[in-house]
Design goal:
The protein has 14 helices and six strands. The protein is an alpha/beta fold and 297 residues long. Helix 10 links the parallel strand 4 (169-173) and strand 5. Helix 4 crosses helix 14, helix 7 packs across helix 10 (185-203) and helix 9 (148-165) runs parallel beside helix 10.
């Protein structure tokens, strides 16, 4: 009996050690692999027609822009507005450092408009929690541990680069909530990152889209299941992907298990929140000639 117990403990230990590989391979299964595939008209693979005369919009960010886990606001804008070219420069799990590594894929399209929503993974990774930081370093190739000061530096670097090498009108969005409990520690982390976004938006006269504030105005009941920093955080995302792609559930329905109003898995946007962001981006593109404006739509 002792040997069986030891063997089971060793098996559990091995599974824990290789958990990242296991989860990543689950995402490769045929029915749910779309969640990690490149989005349509991805910035690094899409080529504009030589005679294109439509305004070009490049949407930069992480999985919230990528749109395969949670509401796909970029593709929806593209379907609704045929007068412009919408290019998706969102990549799942990217931090701002990762976005800077692929900035040339954005600049090459000579965009007329650029939208930025980046920092959710920076905020998650900035917490001094070893398994989260190890995950980002190992899977995203980071040269250092995530930190809020590094986020500020990398975001400013990105803004300077796209402003100096394009003539695009630029909008930047504050980060959405992580979980829906206003007094949770992670919300304080998000607020600190959003302070950086607001400061840089003012400094470089960008259009500010205050998505965080929109969440604040809607979430008035503190009865949702809390955001977690445990490995359940990633399993919630996997659950959402399976329910959506295998069983056809909406992102809103998926979030109801946790009593979430605007998120599907405590991180990604459901249809309601995605439509809010989409409308704000649409307003910016429609009125993008006014730098420094604050859109709280």
């Amino acid at each position: 009996m002792l040997y069986v117990s030891i063997a089971m403990l060793l098996l559990i230990l091995i599974l824990y050690i290789i958990r990242n590989s296991i989860i990543l391979n689950i995402y490769k299964l045929p029915l749910i692999r779309k969640s990690w595939q490149l989005p349509a008209m991805a910035a690094d693979t899409f080529d504009l027609e030589p005679d294109n005369d439509k305004p070009v919009v490049v949407c930069c960010g992480d999985s919230i822009t990528h749109g395969h886990i949670g509401y796909d606001w970029v593709s929806t804008l593209r379907k609704e507005d045929k007068s412009k070219i919408y290019i998706n420069a969102g990549i799942n799990a990217d931090l701002t450092w990762n976005l800077n590594q692929r900035v040339d894929d954005i600049i090459k399209h000579n965009p007329d408009y650029i939208t930025i929503l980046i920092g959710t993974n920076d905020a998650i990774g900035s917490q001094n929690i070893k398994h989260i930081q190890d995950y980002y370093v190992s899977t995203k190739g980071l040269p250092q541990l995530p930190h809020i000061d590094w986020y500020a530096s990398e975001l400013e670097k990105f803004i300077i680069e796209i402003k100096s090498k394009t003539n695009a009108k630029i909008a930047i969005s504050t980060l959405p909530w992580l979980g829906e409990q206003p007094k949770a520690e992670i919300i304080s982390v998000v607020k600190l990152h959003n302070n950086i976004i607001r400061t840089l938006s003012d400094k470089y006269e960008l259009t500010l889209i205050d998505l965080f504030k929109q969440f604040d105005e809607i979430i008035d009941i503190n009865n949702s299941v809390p955001y977690t920093t445990s490995e359940w955080r990633r399993l919630r995302g996997l659950r959402a992907v399976i329910l959506h792609y295998v069983f056809g559930w909406s992102w809103s329905r998926i979030g109801r298990k946790y009593k979430l109003k605007l998120l599907c898995d405590h991180i990604h946007l459901n249809e309601k929140a995605g439509a809010m962001l989409q409308q704000s981006m649409k307003e910016f593109i429609g009125r993008g000639e006014y730098p420094g404006q604050d859109l709280n739509l």
